[in-house]
Design a protein that fits this description.
Blueprint (H helix, E strand, L loop, with lengths): L6 H23 L3 H24 L4 H36 L2 H14 L6 H18 L7 H20 L1 H11 L4 H39 L5 H11 L8 H13 L3 H30 L4 H15 L3 H46 L2
Helix pairs in contact: 2-3, 2-6, 3-5, 3-6, 8-9, 8-11, 8-13, 9-10, 10-11, 12-13
Membrane topology: Multi-pass membrane protein
Subcellular location: Membrane
Keywords: Membrane, Transmembrane, Transmembrane helix
Amino acid sequence: MANIYTPRQQRLLLITSLVIIAGFIVAGLRGYATAFLGAGILYVVFRPWFTALAIKRRWNRSLVTTLIIIFSTVVIIMPFLTLSLLLIGRIQYYSQNVDDILNLIHKGEELTGFKVTSPQNVRQILQQGATYASRLLPSIAGGALDFIVIIGLMFFTLYFMFVQQESFQKGLQKYLPFKRDTQKELGESLKNNVNANVLGQALVSLVQGVLTGITLWIFGVPDAPFWGVVAFFMAFIPVLGTPLVWGPAGLIKLSQGDTGQGVGILIVGIIVIINIDNLLRIMLAKRMGDIHPLVTLTGIVLGVPIFGILGLVIGPLLLSYFIVLMNVFERENRQLRAEAVQDEVKVEKKAENAETGT
């Protein structure tokens, strides 16, 4: 019995079915998207290690991948989780005990003569900030099962990405709707973004966070280690970064009459911490991915509300991919126009030859 659909209709229905099924899959896994994104980021970070050990030295792939997973758990996941929980705990403490914050604001108002906001607004802002921070950063207390599932799914995905690396890469090349040159550009953009916004930026942020914490401790700021952790996270934001931590700390010391300590914090921040930031970025830019600060800043603003803390990488990556695809689109259009001009020239020559009889 003949099929009632034409070949064109069958193709359209096939595409529609794929889109609908893919939509259900994405909707079902949307809560665990960070696991797959995290696996992709870790794959790019540790791929040189895997290549050196499993490909060149021919170590057992499962063993190498297991060692990579253990290393990333001990060196990346656990310290980051500890810092996140510490930061969330302190933010929640300050949101519930706002008297210290209000006193500092009042002193700042007395020093500058400007009224910032009402106490009720301050309380509301702090409570909203605590809620927002808890949503962005991982919290075992907020959902132990979800956290364990996400981490487990991330490492499970990473394991097969390494163990079956050739099949994984061939699958990407086969099913991505881009030419081979475009795929290479996208891969290079991913590598540059991960290097710049994970490896390079994490190193810069760590140095700045440590320097900020030590500076605040030397000049007698309470909770200096906590503010050092805050500085570590804030340092991911280009331009603004750690000045949002040591700047108010210096102004608060000045408002309290501790002129020497306040001036000292500001001098160290301006001369040492900011210059260290610029120096490290210049040193690492060419080695670990040269990403324009505007792309990073705009990408962070775009990515963090959508992807949480992973938006620090995913946001700039999305913008970089958009720029790459726009360049590809422009280049291919230019090639098509050039080919069209060449075809017109050939047609005109043929017409001229036909008229002259040659």
